[in-house]
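Most newcomers find our protein records easier to grasp once they have seen one. Sequence and backbone structure share a record, each on its own labelled line. To make this concrete, we reproduce a full record directly below:
***
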Amino acid sequence: MIKFEISAPGKVILFGEHAVVYGKTAVATSLNLRTTLRFTELTSSADFKHSIKIEFPNINLLIVVPLSAFLNYFFNDNFTYLPENSVHLHNHVKDFVESIADLLKKNDDKDIINRQKSSLRAFFYLLSCTIFNEELNIKDTSFHVYVSTNFSVGAGLGSSASFAVCLAGCFLHWSNLQKDKRNTFISDLDKISKYALDSEKIMHESPSGIDNSICTYGSMIRFENRKLVDMLQDVPKLNILLVNSGIVRNTKDLVKRVADVKNTSLTTFNSILDSIDDIAKNGWKTFNNMSSEGEDSKNPKWYSKLKTLIDTNQKLLHTLGVSHTQLDTICQLANKHSYSSKLTGAGGGGYVFVLLPPNEDEQSIISLINDLIEHGFDKFVRTSLGGNGVRLEE
């Protein structure tokens, strides 16, 4: 019986969100917060025979799909897999998920239902891709995939990409084990990232590719012209406070909002994006300088430099129309306590990250946290930047 566990990190975009969609520079890093997937081949029984059990507790999803329902839908004379046409497969997967929707538990929360269906589409897209492309054999089997995460879903910390990377890694690793290839996981990272990106298109239409890259490779990366162009392995030792605004946002809507700014005032749009691009490039240079200095990276001059870049980036994102009153309030509270902060991800809600100085004054941080709680922001976590990408756990 095959059984294994895979995990992938969350991510935080430090500089350049939205601008990166238009080819500008972005800097992102992995977080020491992870999504974990447990895969188990199951022994068939009278109650559980030739079935796919899918369990994602963070979105209240537990569903058992008959294996025959999946195989009959994807492997018949009415459907032809086209390797170069992901949209064709996306549409077929979408129709399949709708066909099994009755198996889902009844839920009146439309957001939860949408997340469940979106997650199932990613699951079956990646499963079918691996079967078609990697010759994964699932006939006459039963298996259980359990995925949980220790960061909020849909809040800008790369939950969907981390999820997709875990699934892509899972099915690819399973396929390799069937072929008795047991030490290939690290060499498959490029393939995992590509599959995850294709899956992300189901949820975000035109993802930049930055989320799946950072969740696959970890560390800190520079993204430019819609591709990974550089990686910083020795990420400076920096801590952040992640504060949840409590506002659920829709990435597709926010990307469209930015596109509307472009269509309304191209000159203003280009000016904002050029400024964000310059900030991201300066941020990358600063992180490289800090990395090369090792322990000397704790020099206050670097924190001061990053503080200015972060605050300016947030103001530009506000001007671009992707902030929110709750995000603005969190940033104002951080500024009141002399900390720099900005939204991360698509904006419109989700998280703000607050950069903590190298020599943290614990009492000052507690004072900020108390202020946040008084204003209703009681969901936060302290974590650090950098860390491993997707990995096969021992």
